[in-house]
Amino acid sequence: MTISSKGSNLTRDQEGLFHQIRLFSGLSHEELNSLEKGKEEWYEKGEKIIAEGENDAFYVVLNGKVQIILKDGPREALLSTYDSGDHFGELLIILGEHLSDHKCAAFAAEKSHLLRWDKDAFWRMVYSSPSLTRQILHSMARLLKSLETVLEQNQKLIALGSLAAGLAHELNNP
C-alpha cells in the first residue's frame, strides 16, 4: 500500500518525523517545508524494493531494515544494510545510465516503512537545499569508502584462492 504525502507545508507530526531522520535533522523549518514530502510505502519481509537495473528512486527508511544484495549469477553477496533513519538510492540516481545494468537489488529484511522520492523529486531536493546536498555527499563518501573496503577484501580472497589452487596443484603433481 502506498500513501502519497505531498504538500507544501509539513504538519507538526511530519516535521518531527523528518527531524528524527539523520539526513534531514540539520535542516531549518523553512528548508524542511520547501522539500517535497515523498510517498510512504510499506514492504513485507523479503519483498523487493529496487530491482536489478533500476535507478529511479531515493528512499529513507522510517522503520525496519533494508538490505542491498549484489547478484552475480547464482551467487549473492550482502553489500549493505540500512536501518531506521538511513537513506539509500542516491548513488544509483546520481550515476544514472552509467549503472543501468547494475546487479544490485534492495529487499526488506523485515517489515519496513519507507519514504520514496522519484529521481526528479530527488534532484529538486538537491538543487533547493545546500545543507541536504552536503549531507548526501558525506553519506556517499562513506558508502564509497565501505564499498572500497569490500572490494579490497574480495581481491584478497581471490588472491588467496589462486594461491591455494596453485599449491594444491603442486602437491598433487610434484
Report what the structure shows.
It is a single chain. The protein has 174 residues and is α+β, with helices and mostly antiparallel strands. It is 43% helix and 28% strand. The protein is built from five helices and nine strands. It has helices at residues 12-20, 29-34, 90-95, 119-128, 130-172, and strands at residues 2-4, 39-43, 48-50, 57-63, 65-72, 75-83, 87-88, 104-108, 112-118. It has a five-stranded antiparallel β-sheet. A four-stranded antiparallel β-sheet has the order 3-8-5-6, with no helix packed on it. The longest helix is centred in the C-terminal third of the chain and has 43 residues, at 130-172. The protein is elongated, with a radius of gyration of 20 Å.
Which keywords apply here?
disordered N terminus, 174 residues, elongated, five-stranded antiparallel sheet, alpha+beta, 28% strand
Structure at a glance:
By secondary structure, this protein is of the alpha+beta class. The protein is built from 5 helices and 9 strands; from the N terminus they run βααββββββαββαα.
